[in-house]
Amino acid sequence: MENVTLHYFPFKGLGEGIRMLLTYGGQKFEDKRIPWEQWPEFKPKTPFGQMPMLQANGKTYSQTLALARFLGRKYGLAGETLDEAFEIDQNMDFFTEIRVKSSTPMFEQDPEIKKKLKENLDKNYIPGALKQLNEIIGKNNGHIANGKLSWGDFVIAGVYDALKNMLFQMPDMDEKFPHIKKLKDNVLSLPKVKEYVATASPKTEM
Ligand SMILES: N[C@@H](CCC(=O)N[C@@H](CS)C(=O)NCC(=O)O)C(=O)O
């Protein structure tokens, strides 16, 4: 691809998986990190008022999973059969559900309601959902599907720190769910990704 620019905030979050996928694919790209103060002005220029957003060959691409799947197809990381592709999609939909449900307190303004929402998730949802995700990854040798590397692994590894530190606020997540941590380590130990993370990855806890 020519003239490739990735737009995201100056942290890892949903943008980091896409940065790592582009790096894995050997794709040169401009890693444009939009500061929060400039976001209101930039937001209307994105297709859905959100980032990550990729521009390449004069076209605009958005939505994290669609983007990651698109790059995954380019780089041979999207399954070799329809069934393999399905397993990645299925397990990534489950992962996304966990991420989205767990973020509901973040959007609540009332501090009392926010606290109650978080307590309810911590008690009734997050531990069970992470246990199931951890088991899925355990059965797949430290990957989200098919026992091998796929685009889904990059999305999860990229957003791992944000989940642990911000959404779940779970300092012992690595010990509690070691297979999820192993998935992150598997992606971060890929040689090109390792070099990218050491030199260009945003130095943030999320
Ligand atoms: N469904 C979108 C969600 C993207 C999203 O939530 N982006 C956040 C940052 S992680 C964002 O742009 N927030 C700013 C806003 O909504 O104004 C995707 O998967 O890419």
Summarize the structure.
By secondary structure, the protein is an alpha+beta fold. It folds into two domains: 5-75 and 192-199, Glutaredoxin (3-Layer(aba) Sandwich), CATH 3.40.30.10; 82-189, Glutathione S-transferase Yfyf (Class Pi), Chain A, domain 2. It has helices spanning 13-24, 39-42, 64-74, 82-102, 111-124, 126-139, 151-167, 173-176, 178-188, 191-199; strands at 5-8, 30-33, 53-56, 59-62.
Model description:
This protein has 206 residues and is α+β, with helices and mostly antiparallel strands. It has two domains: 5-75 and 192-199, Glutaredoxin, CATH 3.40.30; 82-189, Up-down Bundle (Glutathione S-transferase Yfyf (Class Pi), Chain A, domain 2). Helices cover 57% and strands 8% of the residues. It has ten helices and four strands, in the order βαβαββαααααααα. A four-stranded mixed β-sheet has the order 2-1-3-4, covered by helices on one side. Helix 1 packs parallel to helix 3 and helix 1 packs antiparallel against helix 7. The chain starts with a strand and ends in a 7-residue tail after the last helix. 33% of the residues are buried. Glutathione binds at residues 13-14, 43, 49-52, 63-64. GO terms for molecular function: glutathione transferase activity. Residues 2-79 form the GST N-terminal domain. Keywords: Transferase.
**Oligomeric category:** single chain
Topology-level CATH name of the largest domain:
Glutathione S-transferase Yfyf (Class Pi), Chain A, domain 2
The main sheet orders its strands as 2-1-3-4
Instruction: List the ions, cofactors and other small molecules found in this model.
Output: glutathione
Query: What is the strand tally?
Result: 4
Q: Report the end-to-end length measured between terminal Cα atoms.
A: 29 Å
